[in-house]
Design a protein that fits this description.
Blueprint lengths: L2 H7 L3 E5 L5 E5 L3 H27 L8 H26 L5 H6 L1 E5 L7 H28 L4 H14 L11 H6 L1 E5 L8 H8 L11 H4 L4 H12 L5 H16 L11 H21 L2 E2 L8 E2 L7
Antiparallel strand pairs: 1-2, 3-4, 5-6
């Protein structure tokens, strides 16, 4: 199935190619779900700010050193507002609490790793898209006077807020600047059917074995990507399997034993089974390797972060 036919069947679906050369189908988050996730995050921010003001407001007086404390709280609120999204999207691999609750995440549109620079860029734009205009509207509303600045600010805000409604990829300005997509989070489980099928085959005839160091190169994301490759069918499947097998072999520095010549499909199934077993064994000891870019997370339960 081509990328064009996928989009015709479901306009929310897109196909991207990972740095390993593997085509992956993802589904764009719909606008209402994104809005709900953002609302949850704003509510969390608002609740945090309210707690801070209630905590400090009961003990502070509007004179003397208390003014310095109030200034400190104001600065902290600004930093909280500015870096809340950056922190969680960096630490939680593209998901804020709101996005996680709604089953969404941010990814790189080119299929690579979501970089810190992209996260910073898309969230700095949120300050311009939403928080700065909102602050201006509140200031104008409380200040009274000429209403034209208020209307101009509202028009400016509307341009940014309504931008996702007028492009097929549902991109806000931050997504355009950061080169990102917001997608429905793919299933996190590790499928057992391919692993079971691979283990029942006699790969020993090819002596396909891997060292711990070779298996430590990849993580869960790559395992799921490899699963997508093994599920592929059609005339292009064999070509993709050959290319992916060559990439993996180069990356882990694997060479076939003397006198053996496994097919690309046999190699990929053997590597999938070995990598899956390796990752599951590590999970039993509280170690979870998310992908090849991350070090193992120790003492982290499966499914967290």
């Amino acid at each position: 199935m081509t990328a064009a036919s996928i989009e015709r069947d479901d306009p929310a679906r897109r196909t991207i190619t990972t740095p390993e050369g593997v085509p992956i189908t993802i589904r764009l988050a719909d606008r209402s779900t994104r809005a709900a996730a953002f609302l949850i995050d704003v509510l969390i921010l608002g609740l945090t700010v309210a707690i801070l003001f209630l905590t400090f407001g009961l003990t502070l007086r509007p004179s003397g050193p208390a003014l310095w404390v109030i200034s400190g709280v104001t600065i902290f609120v600004f930093l909280l507002r500015s870096f809340y999204f950056m922190y969680f999207e960096t630490r939680w691999r593209g998901a804020t609490p709101g996005k996680r609750m709604m089953g969404l995440k941010v990814i790189d549109r080119r299929g690579g790793q979501l970089t810190t620079e992209a996260v910073i860029a898309r969230n700095l734009m949120r300050e311009i898209e939403f928080f700065m205009p909102l602050s201006l509207l509140l200031a104008i509303g409380f200040g009274g006077g000429n209403q034209w600045p208020s209307l101009a600010t509202l028009a400016w805000t509307s341009i940014f807020l309504l931008l996702p409604l007028f492009n097929r990829d549902r991109l806000r300005a931050g997504d355009i600047v950061g080169g990102t997509w917001v997608i429905v989070t793919p299933r996190a489980g590790l499928s057992r059917d391919i692993a079971g099928r691979a283990r029942t085959k006699r790969h020993s005839r090819y002596a396909i074995q891997f060292t711990k160091e070779q298996l430590d190169v990849y993580g869960i994301y790559e395992l799921q990507t490899l699963e997508e490759v093994l599920r592929m069918s059609g005339p292009g499947a064999t070509r993709w399997e050959s290319e992916v097998a060559e990439r993996i072999q180069r990356r882990i520095k694997w060479t076939p034993p003397e006198g053996s010549s496994p097919t690309a499909h046999s190699f990929l199934e053997a590597f999938y089974a070995a990598l899956r077993g390796h990752l599951e064994q590590k999970m039993l000891f509280g170690e979870r390797r998310k992908d090849k870019f991350h070090k193992t997370d120790k003492n982290t339960k499966t499914g967290e972060h």
